[in-house]
Amino acid sequence: MLPFSIKIWLAVTSVVVLWDAGYILNRPESMAGGSLEWVWFPYVDYIKNVDPRYGDLTDGFVIAQARMNIVEVFFQLSALYLASRKSTAAYVATLVGAVMTCSKTVLYFLVEWDGGMKYTKTSKPFDFWFYGIFLNGLWIVVPGLIALWAASTINRLLAKKSPAKQN
Question: pTM of the full predicted structure?
Answer without folding.
Answer: 0.89
